[in-house]
Amino acid sequence: MKMVAKQISIFLENRQGRLMDVTRVLAEENINFSALCIAENNEFGILRGIVSDPQKACDVLKKKNFAASLTDVLGISCPNKPGMLSLILKKLADSGIFIEYMYSFALNHATITVIRPNDLEKCIEVLQRNEVELIDPESMYNL
Amino acid sequence: MIWNESIECMDGGALRKIQTIRLRKMVEYVYHNTPFYRKKMQELGLSPQDIETLEDIHKLPFTTKTDLRDNYPFGLFAVPMSQITRIHGSSGTTGKPTVVGYTRKDINLWTECLSRCFTAYGATKDDIFQIAYGYGLFTGGLGAHYGAENIGASVIPLSSGNTEKQIHLMHDFGTTVLCCTPSYALFMADAIKDMGIDRDSLKLKAGAFGAEPWTENMRREIEEKLAIKAYDIYGLSEISGPGVGFECECQNGTHLNEDHFYPEIIDPVTLEPLGEGQKGELVFTHLTKEGMPLLRYRTKDLTSLHYGKCSCGRTLVKMDRILGRSDDMLIIRGINVFPTQIESVILDLPEFEPHYLLTVDRINNTDRMELKVEVKPEFYSDEINKMLALKKRIGDKLQNVLGLGVDIKLAEPRSIERSTGKAKRVIDNRKFN
User: Fold this and answer.
1) Alpha carbon of B421 to those of A52, B117, B224, B258, B354: distances in Å?
2) Which residues on neighbouring strands pair with residue B63, listed in sequence order?
3) Which of B375, B383, B415 shows the shortest C-beta gap to A100?
4) pTM tops 0.80
5) CB B147, CB B133: distance < 8 Å
6) Per-residue pLDDT tens for B113-156?
7) Are residues A86 and A42 in the same domain?
8) Can you give the CATH number for the domain in which A105 is found?
9) Residue A41 touches partner B, C-beta closer than 8 Å
10) 3-class DSSP state for residue B173?
11) What was the ipTM of the complex prediction?
């Protein structure tokens, strides 16, 4: 599945400076973040991000005892207009696809969304059938 | 394999006879040579002639660690210093160390006990022992050293710590038997992996693990990670050091060298003797010691005893795994909690590492336990629900086993301190004054 991108996921205890530790380790390896978000509850957080070299990022973080792993996600691009995301989500919902989580941002004319569906293969198929633009992984890593 | 078949497999009745004769002699000996015991016996109106059978042992006074401290350093020695050839002691983390003295004969008998122990593990003169117990005042290092030498094995006296060097030498020298604490064995197993050393390139086949209580699950974990047989070795410096008891190939109980150390189980609160199979505090009376013999020494270790012939052929009494120490026992909201119970829950769940830190606090007059525990790297999920489910899984299991709620804190890999000696797993912040 060539449109599947690797997202780096890191479990973090709620401790001061822990996020900074992650960014420092990756900076030292000259790895860039093109997207990053944090899901949290009152005890721990999970950092999810798209980086310039996911495998290398995962390896160096693991070596430093971070709970890092790679997760398959999809990147989609759509025009930055009202109703566009709703349209795409409707197609997915109608096909019985759940979204575990997603994060998104818009810049100028385009909106870029990272999604983690429960069924990757089916999700790609639905998106392609409806002519939604999938972003190839290499472009995502180097946004 | 059995080192001293005539004793280790002796008919139970004959063993009782030997114990009775030795006990009578011992009471006579301490009465005349240890002023502390003469005074205690006189206070109880006891004379050595009152001790005729093994049951009469119940008339004798107990000895505690406090008695050893009160008589620091040499007050309980039964021989002049000219006959003492070795002095050991406890680490003394809670005050003055407790001191024990050995005559040459005491050292020889201790070495005999360790020879029985290592032979039971299947070790012979062809083995290479790596002693990673501390050498020094602590009995672990030198005790194991003498035992391994006595069976003719090659001994690498590495002492504890310096893990990388331990592993390099283990690899280069072809160590076959490792002696250390069980928590250090697990620590080494992780370090071997981290150093990228292929486990199959090691020649390890067995380990003598003791000096702290451990569980059946921890044994499985060690055996799996190091691909060895992990055997319990039991001991305490007050009685001689490691080798007071040892496991045989059956791995279902620890045989006690009861021809030298007479064991009893008592209720730690009422001090009344308990029967076979009942759980209570283990108490030892020296039967052969010269340097510093003790009567009814309270070990604080909680276990039970089982008599009869073992399938290995030995008749020496078998002791269950140490359930905990009567002074490690935490009383949380009136319920007794042993750290080993928590450990066994963690080790039963494949998602968690066998390292934990339990913190006990009293908040608004209510006891609260917080357990910090690491998830195994492959079980960290990037979905919050899955992490919360993991937390609930261990929380529910602990609630079941302990009958108490525990606040679970999931920790990052390697964030809980690994120990190189006796593990510090419980912090009790409650103040009781």
Assistant:
1) 43, 21, 21, 28, 15
2) B297
3) B383
4) no
5) no
6) 999 999 999 999 999 999 999 999 989 999 999 999 999 999 99
7) no
8) 3.30.2130.10
9) yes
10) helix
11) 0.83
